[in-house]
Amino acid sequence: MSIDKYNLGVYVEGGRLWPHVDCYGLVLEVRRDLGLPAWPEWSEMRKADGGFVRACEEMIQTAAIRCPAEHGATASAYRGQVQDHVGIVLELDGALEVLEINPKRNVSLTPLRRFERRFSRVEYYR
C-alpha cells in the first residue's frame, strides 16, 4: 500500500471531503481505499461541541467490532475516560503504524507503541 496520497491531507475540523479532513475523515478515506465497509460520515460532528465523543460512542455500540491492533483497524484513543482521537492502523514493511492527522502536524505515521503511549487507553475496531 502506498501512503503517498495521504501526505496531501490537510486538517480541517469536521472535514470529510478529501484532502480536507479531520481525524475521523482520514479514517473514512483510508477505509474506503482499503475496501472496508463504509462507516457513517457524521459530517456535523465537531470535537469542540462534544459531537466527536457522541458519534464515536455510537459507532462503538452499533457498527464497530473490537479487534486486536491489525492492518485496517481504527485506533480509538482516550485521554482519561474521554475518547479524544482516532487513527487507522497500517502494516508497512512488516511493522504496525498509525496513520493520523491533527491540526499541528497534518498527516503523520506513528509507530503503534508510540501512539499508544500518548494516550491513557487505545482500543481497536474494525
What does this structure look like?
The protein has 126 residues and is of the alpha+beta class. The protein has a single domain, classed as endopeptidase fold (from Nostoc punctiforme), CATH 3.90.1720. Helices cover 24% and strands 33% of the residues. The protein contains 3 helices and 8 strands, in the order βββααββββαβ. The strands form 2 sheets. A 5-stranded antiparallel beta sheet has the order 7-6-5-4-8. Strands 1-3-2 form a 3-stranded mixed beta sheet. Strand 4 and strand 5 (82-92) form a beta hairpin. The longest helix has 12 residues, at 23-34. It is globular. 29% of the residues are buried. The mean pLDDT is 89.
Give the N-terminus to C-terminus distance in angstroms. Answer: 18 Å
Rounded radius of gyration (Å): 13 Å
How is the largest sheet built, in terms of strand order?
A: 7-6-5-4-8
User: Mean of residue pLDDT?
Assistant: 89
Beta-strand content bin = 25-35%
Helix coverage percent? 10-25%
Name the assembly state: single chain
Q: Any idea of the CATH topology?
A: endopeptidase fold (from Nostoc punctiforme)
Structural classification: alpha+beta
| Major β-sheet profile | 5 strands, antiparallel
CATH class category = Alpha Beta
- Which CATH architecture would you pick? Alpha-Beta Complex
Report the total helices. Answer: 3
